[in-house]
């Protein structure tokens, strides 16, 4: 049973990290290169980001439940890998429920990001929130890589 639970932990973390890397380095740049407008590309990336966040939270919960089931103690959550997963979930929830809605509101207020004047205060605020979003996703990716390292280290122990 322990092997199955460890497999679930690794699989869930791999899915989460893979979706983050794929959206960040394939879908987002591709959407902005291929689609007719920045507004369409932004809508596509926003849609993908919502799904990535949902997948991430589900994967995070699966990892934590597997850890608890495998270790039969809450100390599994306090181990470095568990703490990294908790950080990943926290950053994802903040991005989904605080940052993404603010960016969506600004998009609606502007009507079109592409048609908004470069010196618009709304565009400046949107850009600031976009940087926050990228920072949060970078934090998720970094915490995920650390979680993977700690999980591998636990496995070898």
Give the ordered list of helices and strands. Answer: HHHHH
Instruction: Give the beta-strand count.
Output: 0
Unreliable parts: none
Amount of helix: over 70%
End-to-end distance: 18 Å
- Please, how many helices? 5
Output the radius of gyration: 18 Å
Short description:
With 157 residues, the chain is mainly alpha-helical. It has 5 helices and no strands.
Describe this structure in words.
The chain is mainly α. It has one domain. Helix content is 88%, strand content 0%. It has five helices and no strands. Helix 1 runs antiparallel to helix 2, helix 1 runs antiparallel to helix 5 and helix 4 runs antiparallel to helix 5. The protein is elongated, with a radius of gyration of 18 Å. 26% of the residues are buried.
Could you outline the blueprint of secondary structure elements for this entry?
Layout (H helix, E strand, L loop, with lengths): L1 H33 L3 H34 L3 H4 L1 H31 L10 H36 L1
Entry keywords:
mainly alpha, 157 residues
């Amino acid at each position: 049973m322990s092997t199955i639970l460890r497999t679930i932990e690794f699989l869930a973390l791999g899915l989460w990290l893979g979706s983050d890397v794929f959206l960040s380095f394939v879908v987002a740049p591709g959407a902005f290169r291929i689609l007719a407008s920045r507004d369409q590309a932004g809508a596509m990336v926003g849609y993908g980001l919502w799904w990535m966040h949902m997948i991430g939270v589900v994967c995070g919960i699966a990892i934590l439940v597997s850890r608890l089931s495998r270790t039969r103690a809450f100390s599994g959550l306090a181990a470095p890998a568990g703490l990294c997963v908790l950080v990943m979930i926290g950053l994802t929830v903040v991005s989904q429920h605080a940052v993404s809605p603010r960016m969506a509101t600004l998009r609606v207020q502007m009507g079109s990001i592409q048609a908004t004047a470069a010196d618009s205060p709304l565009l400046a605020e949107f850009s600031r929130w976009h940087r926050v979003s990228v920072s949060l996703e970078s934090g998720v990716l970094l915490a995920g890589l650390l979680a993977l390292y700690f999980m591998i280290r636990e496995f070898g122990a």
